[in-house]
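Hello forum,

I keep getting stuck at the same step: I have a sequence, I want structure tokens, and every attempt I make locally crashes halfway through. Rather than fight my setup again tonight, could one of you with a working pipeline run this one for me? It's a single chain of 133 residues.
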Amino acid sequence: MTTALATPACPCGSGKPFASCCEAYLRGNAQAPDAEALMRSRYTAYTLMDEPYLLATWHASTRPTALKLTEGDANAQPQWIDLKVKAHKVEDASHASVDFVARYRINGKARKLEELSYFVKEQGRWYYLSAYA
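Reply #2:
Ran it on my machine without issues. Output:
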């Protein structure tokens, strides 16, 4: 009798295995097809502290030079718990927004980030532009 190994669920909360969800985007094997997929992959990148992916998917006009995700006290680093996408609104072919709530723990205290993120599509690729928290 063989036992199937459990496939890790994607941190983005889609309910899909990581390998068939955000992994291809983070590895550069595919582009997110819409703003919601990019938002979910960026959340996953935060859980994995994948700074290069986060910077690469941030629009050049608003991108910081660095995020410094691994600097400082390890206890002060967010431990991401879950993501809930409340709404994905397509404005037109190259503009969209995603309203979400991300829960995390920092220094043992549970917190949440509620944000309305704006995305732009340029040359066939979606980018995170800005947020209204």
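The CA atoms of residues 71 and 77 lie 9 Å apart. If your local run keeps crashing, start a new thread with the error log.
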